[in-house]
Write a structure and sequence with these properties.
single chain, 10 helices, mainly alpha
């Protein structure tokens, strides 16, 4: 049976993210957009989001403001591509390395590695551009980029449900489904809520320990440490 793509929220895709006016098709226009993405990231990382203006972007990238507006209706559309660049890097480099690290680990150790990586990535995006990250958080799921997933439910089923089944094969299927949802969706939502409410807490070791306790609680387990 074919899967329904569902709503933007269910799909976890990029339906709400600001889009460019047009995508580059020729080598010259692709180079122009690449220069804008590189300049956008350089400004965000070196000067902060408050310094990211069209004039500053034009100055750093060497692209005229008029040419920028030919491709992008506003600054958020440019930041979208900058975040795309970061998320693609996370999906292709860091997720692959994470899978190698957790191979053969006990459940609590594997969860610790996964949650540490989740916190690291969310902090990276938050520090890059706080307002953009919090506003578009539902559409910035790196997990959706690691496979041909059409919906968030499909992603959870094919990754987290499989993870839980591998470690706890005797767990009731309905319980496994709920635990997988809490691991795949609930942990990330907790990080996002804390970043908005008390961002200084997210970098604290105690926060990651509490996340691990929550994850193990969803599995009705306790940490062995």
């Amino acid at each position: 049976m074919a899967r329904s793509k569902g709503s933007p929220e269910e799909s976890g895709g990029k339906g709400r993210l600001p889009a460019p006016r047009k995508l580059p098709s020729q080598s010259r226009s692709r180079s122009l957009v690449s220069a804008l993405i590189e300049a956008c990231l350089r400004i965000l990382q070196g000067e902060g989001a408050e310094a990211l203006t069209m004039n500053r972007l034009s100055e750093v990238s060497g692209v005229a403001v008029g040419s920028i507006y030919q491709y992008f209706p506003n600054m958020e559309a440019i930041v979208t591509l900058a975040f795309d660049h970061i998320l693609d890097e996370e999906a292709t480099v860091h997720v692959s390395a994470l899978r190698e690290r957790i191979a053969g680990l006990a459940l609590d150790a594997a969860l610790r590695e996964i949650l540490d990586n989740m916190v690291r990535m969310e902090l990276r995006l938050y520090r890059l551009h706080r307002e953009f990250h919090l506003k578009y958080h539902p559409d910035l799921k790196v997990g959706m980029r690691t496979g041909p997933y059409e919906t968030t439910r499909q992603y959870v089923d094919e990754t987290w449900s499989a993870f839980v089944a591998m470690y706890l094969p005797a767990l009731d299927p309905l319980r496994r489904d709920m635990a997988a949802y809490m691991l795949g969706i609930g942990m990330r939502a907790t990080i996002r809520a804390t970043l908005e409410d008390a961002p200084e807490r997210v970098a604290e070791p105690a926060f990651r320990e509490c996340l691990l306790a929550m994850a193990l609680g969803a599995l009705e387990l306790r940490s062995s440490s």
